[in-house]
Amino acid sequence: MNYFNYISEKAYAKINLSFRILGKTSNNYHTIDSIVTFLPDIYDVIKIKKNKKLIICTKGDFSESLAKKGGDTLVKKMIILLKKKFFIADNFKVIIDKNIPLGAGLGGGSADAAAIARVIIKMYKIQIDKKEIIKPFSKIGADIPVCFFSCNQRVNGIGEKLTKLKLLNKIAWVILIKPKENFNTKNIFDRYYEPFSKKPSYEYTYENLINDMNKNENDLQIAAKRYSLIFSNLLNKLPKNSSATFPRMTGSGSTIFILFETKKNALDYLSTIEKNTKGTWKKLSKIIL
């Protein structure tokens, strides 16, 4: 296909290094505390150009799964929001190369919508107040604000309160393992019955982060185990040695991830779990903390 006149943007997958549920709002949304980072080696690619009418096409490993769900509704909602908010008369043709799996806790749909927003804002040289756009973005999808900035952040509230984290000058490696089962965020939250957590107060350092991750699992992990025996069995049979962190879930699942100090350790671990993880989606990426 000829991509002349298209503007291209990467939409990076995210992982929640930590995930706590702190309470509920009056309108029944859960408030969270989460440290989020992005995966430079795992991303969708968005191509966009002006067009007479709005067309959104998909290709790639997970385009069929997306089509079965009715297409990328978050991208469509984002385009409609931006057209209305900034009085944009043009329409667009969008091509999404879908490499991030759906129902995985990796924020793929949110990352795509956020990437579309970044491109359209650049295309029209729109001067934005970052605080002003976070609220409407979060109404489309809770992960869109953090994905819009795609840097290490602490996320609070229902996803709309962001604090950029200092760089720790640390490169680590992460293995992602996703069972065939896709999770629906609402289904997982609906199975969360535990007491609410307290917001952590530790100083943000690499050592403290790893220590916290190994002492405190994702608050939704127990709900995910209730929801899916496949997920629970996979998590339980993954070895807990030679890694910086124990296997844990990102977001509302279903992806499990493990951090490693070196790429060699990660590759060695991958070779030991080959039999136990047949039929799963597995990827290796570096992360910059």
Structural key phrases:
four-stranded antiparallel beta sheet; six-stranded mixed beta sheet; about 290 residues; Alpha-Beta Plaits; Ribosomal Protein S5, domain 2; globular; alpha+beta; about 30% helix
Briefly characterize the structure.
This protein has helices at about 65-70, 75-85, 110-125, 130-140, 145-150, 185-190, 205-215, 220-225, 230-235, 265-270; strands at about 5-25, 30-50, 55-60, 90-95, 155, 160-165, 170-180, 250, 255-260, 280-289. The protein is α+β, with helices and mostly antiparallel strands.
CATH class of the largest domain: Alpha Beta
Shape: globular
Rounded radius of gyration (Å): 19 Å
**CATH fold naming of the largest domain:** Ribosomal Protein S5, domain 2
Number of strands: 10
Order of H and E elements:
EEEHHEHHHEEEHHHHEEHE
Instruction: Specify the structural class.
Output: alpha+beta
The overall pLDDT, averaged over residues, is: 94
Straight-line N-to-C gap? 37 Å
Q: What can be said about the biggest beta sheet?
A: 6 strands, mixed
From the coordinates shown, what is the CATH architecture of the largest domain? Answer: 2-Layer Sandwich
Task: Report the uncertain regions.
Answer: none
* Separate helix tally: 10
Strand content: 25-35%
Helix content: 25-40%
**Total tally of structural domains:** 2
